[in-house]
Design a protein that fits this description.
Layout: H1 12-23, H2 26-42, H3 50-61, H4 86-99, H5 112-129
Helix pairs in contact: 1-3, 2-3, 2-4, 3-4, 3-5, 4-5
């Protein structure tokens, strides 16, 4: 994997994923993102699509309250569809799987400071992806 920085699209694999999203018809983009997340969650052994899953999670987080726009030079150039809320949970599950895989992408960082920065990015993404708790209407009780 060619990596030049710690951002979600700052590696060859994620940049290629962004290109695939740009080349896909708009209706197929959600399926591409959902597919990479589900395969990462369900993977046994080596997480072959971890870099794509991080990029997909960043695209979903960008649509959440508190999310940051994905406007980096290697991200998708075409607008993404509005993603259904269930993808937030899938993205968080995929990131949890990636963070917990000690032999996966976390082990690829040579410089410990880069690893810390990458880990902080994943932590921020996960914080944004957590769905808000269901609200329960409280009733005003009059005595």
């Amino acid at each position: 994997m060619g990596t030049w920085d710690t951002g979600p699209f700052d590696n060859d694999t994620a940049a290629d994923f962004a290109n695939a999203l740009d080349e896909a018809v708009p209706e197929a983009r959600e399926a591409l993102i959902r597919g990479v997340l589900v395969r990462t969650i369900d993977a046994t052994g080596y997480l072959a699509e971890a870099e794509e899953a991080v990029a997909a999670a960043a695209l979903i987080a960008a649509q959440c309250p508190g999310g940051e726009a994905v406007d980096m030079p290697y991200g998708p150039e075409t607008p993404m569809p509005v993603f259904p809320s269930d993808l937030r949970v899938r993205a968080d599950e995929a990131l949890a799987r990636i963070v917990g895989d000690e032999d996966g992408p976390a082990s690829n960082w040579v410089d410990p400071e880069d690893w810390k920065q990458w880990r902080a990015i994943l932590t921020r993404l996960r914080a944004v992806l957590v769905p808000p708790p269901p609200s329960i209407a409280l009733f005003d009780v009059q005595l």
